[in-house]
Amino acid sequence: MANPLNKPLGRLRLGVNIDHVATVRNARGGAYPDPLRAAKMAEVAGADGITAHLREDRRHITDPDIDALMANLSIPLNFEMAATPEMQAIALRHRPHAVCLVPEKREERTTEGGLEVAREENSLAHFIAPLREAGCRVSIFIAADQPQIEAAARIGAEVIELHTGAYCDYHAEGKFAERDAELERLREMSAYAHSLGLEVHAGHGLTYDTVKPVAAFPEVMELNIGHFIIGEAIFSGLDSAIRRMRSLMDEARNETFGEGVA
Question: Which of 60, 94, 171, 204 is catalytic?
Answer without folding.
Answer: 204
